[in-house]
């Protein structure tokens, strides 16, 4: 199991656990985390699972693939250097404790 903390816009942290191999989006959806819409179901085609990776974790993740990078141009909240799509973040033991900030809106 991998723990992921989702930081709500008000600063509250919702920590969930999910099996390794699942995406951060799946971790949020399976645990009813408010703030992830995931309209496309993880197909990297809607940008409604936009998250801000905590700065301490940014360099531990691989860079976004071209399709994710393109889709990040369509986020409702501002795209930042630490912006990622949760559907593209596959979780593994090395990411245990990952912190992901949720933007104020996905639409």
What would you note in describing this structure?
By secondary structure, this protein is an alpha+beta fold. Strand 1 and strand 2 form a beta hairpin. The model has no long low-confidence stretch (mean pLDDT about 95).
In short:
With 107 residues, the chain is α+β, with helices and mostly antiparallel strands. The protein has helices spanning 24-30, 66-71, and strands spanning 2-7, 13-18, 50-53, 83-85, 98-101. The longest helix has 7 residues, at 24-30.
Core attributes:
5-stranded mixed sheet, 107 residues, 12% helix, 2 helices, alpha+beta
Radius of gyration: 12 Å
The strand order across the widest sheet is 2-1-5-3-4
Shape: globular
Largest sheet: 5 strands, mixed
Mean pLDDT: 97
First CA to last CA: what distance?
31 Å
* Oligomer description: single chain
The SSE string, one letter per element, is EEHEHEE
Query: Using DSSP, what is the number of strands?
Result: 5
Counting helices, strands and paired strands, the structural category is: alpha+beta
Helix content: 10-25%
Low-confidence stretches: none
List the total number of helices.
2
């Amino acid at each position: 199991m991998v723990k992921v903390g989702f930081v709500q816009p008000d600063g509250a942290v919702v920590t969930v656990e999910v099996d390794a191999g699942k995406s951060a989006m799946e971790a949020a959806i399976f645990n009813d985390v408010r703030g992830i819409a995931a309209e496309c179901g993880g197909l990297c085609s809607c940008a409604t699972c936009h998250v801000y990776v905590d700065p301490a974790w940014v360099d531990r993740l691989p860079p976004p693939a071209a399709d994710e990078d393109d889709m990040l141009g369509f986020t409702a909240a501002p795209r930042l250097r630490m912006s990622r799509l949760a559907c593209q973040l596959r979780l593994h033991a090395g990411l245990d404790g990952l912190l992901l900030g949720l933007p104020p809106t996905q639409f």
